[in-house]
């Protein structure tokens, strides 16, 4: 059985790149964990260097990786430069990368470009996680967090990004990607809650809350105030009269 190690960059008091309140550490954690779930559906074991907003040192990440024999080590990141100037996806391998690392890197890069990111290519770097990992390692930069267009793409095509990354990894493992059936899809607590609020007339635009009431996103203050006001009024109607 294939075994992978997923590394979600930064975390805890190290948010990585930040732009307009959006944190790299949040984006890569949430997206990477979705990819991990998708990969596991195919019988592949996926271990993760963190599963919460925790600070994990570079050494701890590669120490964890060295404790098991992995087929690949994949580190998830988002890029940053000068706000609204650079865009696109790029994938890194070590300066003396194995052929397996290079093959996976090109597949992952192609998947991100197919979704719509500008192609910044496959590059080499002496990053700690690439240099010190024992398994073939790649690091993906999924768009620029300080570019609004890349962020819109990251959000609006999230499912396609997850599917594309999963397909690329499984292809490298020699496994055929199986589309998820509706019965396999996990329940989304946010969607369930929004449906209840719509049913009771508390909100009328669930799409806005579905998109923005998530880690790394921001809710407008006036909308939050209105929601609290309506929730308070609704709760009062359910209290026993005195």
What does this structure look like?
With 242 residues, the protein is of the alpha/beta class. The protein folds into two domains: 3-173, 3-Layer(aba) Sandwich (Aminopeptidase); 189-238, no CATH class. It is 45% helix and 18% strand. It has nine helices and eight strands. The chain has helices at 24-40, 58-66, 99-115, 128-132, 148-156, 158-173, 189-199, 206-212, 221-238; strands at residues 3-8, 18-19, 22-23, 45-48, 72-79, 89-94, 119-125, 137-144. The strands form two sheets. The protein has a six-stranded mixed beta sheet with strand order 4-1-5-8-6-7. A two-stranded antiparallel sheet has the order 2-3. Strand 2 (18-19) and strand 3 (22-23) form a beta hairpin. The longest helix is centred in the last third of the chain and has 18 residues, at 221-238. It is elongated and about 75 Å long. The termini are far apart. 36% of the residues are buried. The model has no long low-confidence stretch (mean pLDDT 91).
């Amino acid at each position: 059985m294939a075994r992978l190690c997923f590394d979600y960059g930064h975390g805890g008091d190290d948010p990585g790149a930040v732009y307009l309140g959006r944190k790299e550490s949040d984006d890569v954690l949430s997206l990477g964990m979705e990819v991990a779930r998708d990969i596991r559906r195919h019988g592949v074991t996926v271990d993760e260097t963190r599963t919460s907003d925790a600070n994990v040192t570079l050494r701890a990440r590669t120490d964890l990786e060295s404790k098991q024999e992995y087929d690949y080590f994949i580190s998830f990141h988002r890029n940053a430069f000068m706000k609204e100037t650079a865009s696109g996806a790029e994938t890194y391998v070590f300066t003396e990368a194995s052929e397996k690392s290079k093959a996976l890197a090109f597949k992952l890069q192609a998947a991100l470009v197919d979704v719509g990111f500008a192609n910044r290519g496959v590059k080499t770097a002496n990053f700690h996680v690439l240099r010190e990992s024992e398994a073939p390692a790649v690091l993906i930069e999924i768009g620029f967090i300080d570019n609004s267009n890349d962020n819109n793409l990251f959000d609006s095509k999230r499912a396609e990004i997850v599917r594309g990354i999963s397909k690329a990894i499984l292809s490298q493992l020699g496994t055929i990607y199986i589309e998820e059936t509706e019965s396999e899809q996990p329940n989304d607590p946010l969607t369930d809650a929004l449906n209840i609020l719509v049913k009771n007339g508390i909100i009328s635009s669930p799409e806005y809350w579905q998109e923005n009431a998530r880690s790394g996103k921001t809710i407008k203050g006036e909308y939050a105030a209105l929601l609290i006001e309506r929730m308070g009024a609704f709760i009062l109607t359910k209290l026993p009269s005195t």
